[in-house]
Amino acid sequence: MRIMKNQPDGFTGPDLVTWSALISGFSQSGEYRKALVSFKKMNVEGRKQHSIVIATLLAVTALLVVLSPGIEIHGYAICHNLDTEIMVSSSWVDMHSKCGFLDLGIKVFEQMQKRNIVSYNLIIESIVMVALIKKVEGFLREWMLILASAQKLSIMFSL
After folding, report:
1. Among residues 46, 76, 113, 118, which is most buried (max CB within 10 A)?
2. CATH classification at residue 55
3. Stated pTM of the model
């Protein structure tokens, strides 16, 4: 960002490619909040987004497990007719699922006009993860009951 501010006169500012690279770089290096801030700065400057940037930002919100920025980003995608692109829709499904709203993820998936192997893999992975979590919860409950029973026996034998 500092480099972009120190450009010579006549420099019109970063273009879509520069902004995309910046946002992608922040995302890949784990600086998710900086990616979201860059998106906002890009919007303030009136720069139009690309579906790759939108998909990247939806993935960022999924990794942060925060729904509200993702909803704003998706709203932007809808307003700029980017929401029907497979990459954006798939990221939208993934974000809902990772934020704990699998039912909404499934609904988005079912409404997708086009699907590809990525979108199918995302929805299958999401459903499997929820099923596995429920299975783990069942095992944990069972284990807690066994531990509780073992503690009762231990107390009885120590008396």
Report:
1. 76
2. 1.25.40
3. 0.73
The structural domain count of the chain equals 1
Structural domain boundaries, residue 18 = 2-158
In the structure encoding, which two tokens stand for residue 44, read together?
């303030």
From the first residue on, what is the mean pLDDT of each consecutive set of 10 residues in the chain (159 residues)?
53 74 90 90 83 91 89 90 92 92 93 94 92 87 84 61
Neighbour count for residue 95 (Cβ, 10 Å) = 31
